[in-house]
UniProtKB/TrEMBL annotation:
Species of origin: Stigmatella aurantiaca (strain DW4/3-1)
Annotated Pfam families: ATP-grasp_4, LAL_C2
Name of this chain's protein: Argininosuccinate lyase domain protein
Family annotation (PANTHER family): ATP-GRASP ENZYME FSQD (PTHR43585:SF2), FUMIPYRROLE BIOSYNTHESIS PROTEIN C (PTHR43585)
Matching InterPro entries: ATP-dep_AA_Ligase, ATP-grasp, CPAse_ATP-bd, LAL_C2
Residues in ATP-grasp domain copies: 66-266
This protein's UniProt keywords: ATP-binding, Ligase, Lyase, Nucleotide-binding
GO molecular-function terms, A-Z: ATP binding; ligase activity; lyase activity; metal ion binding
Length: 366
């Protein structure tokens, strides 16, 4: 194993160059949105299979993707990029509320917030503008994206684009979000329970969006809302989905997206054949109030429900708690799957209700 500072693209490139000279590189990949542009550039330089660099950069930078989608004639929210207090103050007087204020390159809903007044817009702009680095320690440049708020349920479309340019749709994921002003994903169902015509409309919109940004290779997780006017893409993530969605796909269809991605990177045949038609879902464990985590009770009882496959807590005692503002505030999850949608969703809901987030007693004053 080699250690390298992944925020230093030149250091990563030098490391890979050395390994290539030694004949030790079969493929390059990353599971993190933050490093897709770096991997794409290095892979292109060495002739390795990966997404083309221009598409990788466009997907990584939300306002660049917005511009490409608009240029292709695809519907989208009104958007503005602001980088100064004066620009924020001017926009606050003209933009239509509610709107969404977010960083141009983050993940897990970090920093994404709905604002309803000029004062809220300015306050959240200042919060984002003052950040010197994102959650991975990469330098930021003070730019903030402001978009019109999209009404309607949110979904994601999971795809795989093969080396011949053919994009396969694995399915549509239903998303459940936290209450405003944040947009934390609290659960997913795969596949979404949709009439065929609505499903096709979402899939067609995503395929058009992938074409607009030049997406030519690998997995994509495209977030999209079904507004009263039709589907509108929120963002295209050039990677496998997070939030355990690949596991939901595997439980539902039998397709192992991780194995498929690795086969693709290595030039092997890729098998995306569905071998079953089950329903799978995930529900995330969160805290309703601030405090300090002591334990999560009820895991054994929740695990015994018929279609529950996993109950997991991935935060340790002592973790600071708050009502969810980003994906980092989730404490764990419940996954259920089976042939009957009603039973699967019901078991997941019951399992979640059996889990109790116990908080540590407040420390006595010194």
């Amino acid at each position: 194993m080699l250690k390298v500072e992944t925020n230093d693209a030149a250091a990563v490139e030098a490391c890979v160059d050395g390994l290539v000279r030694e004949g030790k590189v079969a493929a390059l990949l990353t599971f993190s949105t933050f490093y897709v542009p770096t991997v794409a550039a290095i892979a292109a330089r060495h002739g390795l299979r990966y997404l083309q660099p221009r598409a990788a950069q466009a997907c990584h930078n939300k306002h660049e993707a917005r511009a490409l989608l608009r240029a292709a004639g695809l519907p989208g929210p009104e958007f503005h990029v602001i980088a100064s207090e004066a620009e924020a103050a001017q926009l606050a007087q003209t933009v239509r509320f509610p709107c969404v204020v977010k960083p141009p390159a983050e993940s897990g809903s970090t920093g994404v917030r709905r604002v309803d007044t000029p004062e809220e817009l300015l306050a959240h702009f200042r919060s984002l503008h003052s950040r010197a680095a994102n959650e991975r320690g990469q330098s930021l440049h003070g730019e903030v994206l402001v978009e019109s708020f999209l009404e309607g349920p949110e979904f994601s479309v999971e795809t795989m684009t093969l080396a011949d340019g053919t994009t396969h749709v694995l399915g549509v994921t239903q998303k459940y979000l936290s209450a405003p002003p944040y947009f934390v994903e609290m659960g997913h169902d795969f596949p979404a329970d949709l009439p065929p015509e609505r499903r096709r409309a979402l899939e067609e919109a995503v395929l058009a969006g992938l074409a607009a940004v030049g997406f030519d290779f690998g997995p994509a997780h495209t977030e999209i809302r079904f507004t009263p006017a039709g589907p509108v893409i929120i963002e295209i993530n050039p990677r496998l989905a997070g939030g355990m969605i690949p596991e939901l796909v595997r439980l539902s269809t039998g397709v192992d997206l991780l194995s498929a991605m690795l086969d693709q990177m290595l030039g092997r045949p890729v098998d995306l054949t569905h071998t079953r038609q089950d329903v799978a879902c995930i529900r995330f464990i969160t805290s309703e109030r601030p405090g300090v985590l002591a334990r999560v009770e009820g895991q054994d009882e929740a695990s015994r429900l018929g279609t529950v496959r996993q109950v997991a807590v991935d935060k340790a005692a002592g973790t600071r708690l708050r009502p969810p503002e980003s994906a980092t505030d989730r404490l764990g999850y419940v996954i259920a799957s089976g042939p009957e949608r009603g039973q699967v969703l019901g078991d997941a809901a019951r399992a979640l209700s059996l889990l109790r987030v116990e908080q540590a007693a407040p420390s006595a004053p010194a």
